[in-house]
Amino acid sequence: MNHRNQNEFDNQANGLERNDESKTARVIRVDRGIYHLEGIKGIFLAELRGRFQEEAIAASDYPAVGDYVAVDRLNDKDGHGMIAAILPRKSHFSRKVAGNRLDEQVVAANIDTVYVCMALNHDFNLRRLERYLTQAWSSGASPKILLTKEDLCDEREERLRDVQEIAYGVDVFMVSALTGAGMDAWKDSLHPEETGVLLGSSGVGKSTLMNTLLGIEHLETQGLRNDDKGRHTTTYRELVTLPNGAYLIDTPGMRELQLMDDEEASRSVFSEIEVLAKRCRFRDCGHESEPGCAIQAALHNGELSEERWESYQKILREQRFMEKKLKERERREEKKNGKRRN
Q1: CA angle 166–133–293, rounded 5-degree value
Q2: Phi and psi dihedrals of 164, rounded to 5?
Q3: Is the dihedral of CA 48, 51, 53, 58 positive or negative?
Q4: Structural element, H or E, at residue 119
Q5: What sign does the dihedral 243-249-253-257 (CA atoms) show?
Q6: Are residues 206 and 294 in the same domain?
């Protein structure tokens, strides 16, 4: 949370008997200001308490799917509970909101695993995968990769190798909901009481995979278009309990993924570039025309591809731009608050 003081959330939650399970629930769906919660007595609807809405500043201050919340009233005149506070998040996958605003949008909270989904047919894009992995490492959860629609690709083994070359230390599952290929291996990675989130572009088959795990048509899906891409149908995020006791969050497809300001995450995704940079003759090497530059040598001999190097530079520029803008906003807010106190 970038704007509201985390201690404020903690104090509010503790004041509402945080350890009292009857007053704690988890957000399983958000629908136009109405929160679907699951607590010890089952699923019920809730709204935000008026004070909560008055004090919330940014999009990340509001409950997201996967959040645990403190409820100070289970029913009002409309039969809705009232959410008083968000309990501290152990992890969350976020992205920058679209446009020029700097707000952080929390896509899913309190997750153990981020499953980055990419179809092996026309959706296959290594540069996009790098962006998702960067933000996944920043979430505090462990990233894993789901390569979907295995049955629609004749170059599956080559594409699997391409992914493994850039996804260091990340488990990769190649699956098909239609034929069942690879599904058992993926199911084994879904552990009881742990929460995963499915992320990826529209039409990669996230909802179909979820339905396959559940054994029922829980989420609406549509068939394939002529270009082998699935039609996007999911319009909201939803947390579902699987038969083995694991939790999985389905999300709408993302047309774009704008990154936040975590450079450490990009270093995890592009770790081989970080290793190369340490071999440069000069510590402050700009990796352009300096003598003894290990990056340029690797580009020249094919050890490092131009596409991966350009992707790394682009992601770093985006993260540093966000960091600069966020610091500028913090300075403006501090200056404004200083004037108010005087």
Answers
A1: 50
A2: -65, -30
A3: negative
A4: strand 113-119
A5: negative
A6: no
pLDDT of residue 75: 59
Q: Find out whether 238 and 28 touch, Cβ atoms under 8 Å.
A: yes
Q: Say if residue 280 is in the same domain as residue 176.
A: no
Alpha carbons 197 and 283: distance in angstroms, whole number: 40
Token code pair at residue 7: 């201690």
Among candidate residues 104, 108, 105, 103, the one with its CA nearest the CA of residue 93: 108
Three-state DSSP state, 80: coil
Count of CB atoms situated within 10 Å of the CB of 222: 12
What would the pLDDT profile of 176-230 be if each residue is shown by its tens digit? Answer: 999 999 999 999 999 999 999 999 888 888 888 988 998 865 545 444 443 444 4
- What is this structure's pTM? 0.82
What span, in angstroms and rounded, lies between the C-alpha atoms of 206 and 39? 26
Beta strands in 1-96 (DSSP E): 24-31, 34-39, 42-48, 68-73, 81-86, 92-96
* 144 in any annotated domain: yes
Domain extent for 125: 92-250
Percent of the chain past pLDDT 70, that is, above it, reads 79
Residue 317 placed within a domain: yes
Burial of 6 (0-12, 13-18, 19+ CB in 10 A): exposed
CA distance 219 to 214: 10
Q: What is the pLDDT of residue 306?
A: 95
Q: Which of 64, 86, 108 is the last residue of a domain?
A: 86
Please report the DSSP string for 275-321 in residue order: HHHTTSSSTT--SSS-TT-HHHHHHHHTSS-HHHHHHHHHHHHHHHH
In the chain, the number of structural domains is 3
Judge if 82 and 97 occupy the same domain.
Answer: no
